[in-house]
Amino acid sequence: MIDFDKHISEETPPKASAMINTFRAFGYNLQTAIADLIDNSISAKSENVWINYEWKGKDSWVIITDDGEGMDKNTLVNAMTPGSKDPNDERDINDLGRFGLGLKTSSFSQCKNLTVASKRNGDPTLKRCWNLDFVNKTGKWTLLDYISDDSFLEKLNNQKSGTTVLWENLDRLVGNSHHENDAARKVFLEEFSLVEEHLSLVFHRFLEKRKFKLWINGNTINGWDPFMKEEDGGQLICDELLENEYVHIKCYVLPHISKISTEKRISAKTEDWYKLQGFYIYRNERLLLYGDWLGLFTKNEHYKNARILIDIPNKLDHDWKIDIKKATATPSITIRKDLVRLGKMTRLNAANIYRFRGNQLMLDDSITSFDFQSVWKATKQRNGAVNYYVNESHPIISKILESETITAKEIKSTLKLIGRTTPIEAIIQNYSENPESLELRNETRELDSGTIQLAQLMFSSLKKSGVSSDIAIKQILNIEPFNEYPQLIETLK
């Protein structure tokens, strides 16, 4: 082994201003930044976490207080020191941290003034502050014993123990906005609405098990279960342990939207079901990544009810490439084949819901084993394309066709029936399963006798009304579906 002690030349510590500004560019948004701070509160065995914010334009602030164990002076200074923890160190099985950077990087991504105050049972409240403008000015790693207003410590001072994190100078969120800027205020409030949704999902298992309570501006935040385990019609189709039983996987298929009551659809986020399909990776019950097929599959309307829960311990952080933000993860090589297998199975079960609901069998004109008459029928071509057409054998359609005379009211009623029964679900499903079918369907089609006869009738009618042949042909070729057959010109001369 090389003895590098003999080759030491000089030490090159990073410049404070350059490094601390680099920490601001780790890619956090407001939701992931606040979630990172709550991880620390959970690790500190907090029973309550209070998030408060106030719009004051450029003087707006965010404060997060918990009632956890709190920190003494050495622990507080260490917590405020960038890179204070080696990610390779062995950690408590329930520890949600890893790099020793989360508090700093998440906070610096949102503000230029970070103050952390903490109190252990029986001890006085301690505080430390990073002011980025001061660091940039001095070029030194100077941690300050400072807080802008002692009233921010009132809640913490009245507790036995806990920690408060205060963000001020929110340059990334509000900039220099005036407090009367309604547009900026609206954006500010909308961002915190997204924070509520994000936290209710990311920490839903903690909140459901009452491991801690979460409050935002005095309102309790409840957990939102993305697997809807309490809803009728949902299915747990698989439960497996993998990777030496360290990884626990459960495969769920959600109930069809028609089985969810109207009042529950908003809370169920049914409008987002397409985006929420995929794998849900949890580390120590904290959701890291969701609504993603991890590059193993593509999102598809047909599989929007498929969701797969993956539980991993923090000892697999390196294997799964957990990043600093705890917002991305990559499955280990050894488990990818299993994820593909389980993903295919779950997606197939999810697809079956829409195969039934889409009434594909009832539309298929090659199946004659039942008497059900749908308004629309579907026929599959040799090239895989599917054509949909109005069923002339349907009682209402056939009655119209057999009538000697048809009133305007009958025509309107029939057109309304045809429009109302358009098989949208079946069309979406078919395109989702076979997207190239659209291109196949758009290939040049042969001109059939029925289309020729219809065009000739219209041509004759236009001629009788006094329109010239050339104008009549131009008008017909501007009407669907005649516009698809320029060769009609030869039949209309």
Secondary-structure map:
Elements: H1 16-22, H2 30-43, E1 48-54, E2 61-66, H3 73-79, H4 102-108, E3 113-119, E4 126-131, H5 132-138, H6 154-157, E5 162-168, H7 182-202, H8 204-208, E6 213-216, E7 219-220, E8 235-242, E9 247-253, H9 262-265, H10 273-276, E10 278-283, E11 286-292, E12 306-312, H11 333-357, H12 360-363, E13 376-380, E14 386-390, H13 395-402, H14 408-420, H15 424-433, H16 436-441, H17 449-464, H18 469-476
Parallel strand pairs: 1-6, 10-12
Antiparallel strand pairs: 1-2, 2-5, 3-4, 3-5, 6-7, 8-9, 9-12, 10-11, 13-14
Helix pairs in contact: 1-5, 2-4, 2-7, 17-18
Summarize, please:
This protein is α+β, with helices and mostly antiparallel strands. It contains 18 helices and 14 strands. The chain folds into four domains: 16-220, Heat Shock Protein 90 (2-Layer Sandwich), CATH 3.30.565.10; 235-357, 2-Layer Sandwich (Ribosomal Protein S5, domain 2), CATH 3.30.230; 359-443, no CATH class; 444-493, no CATH class.
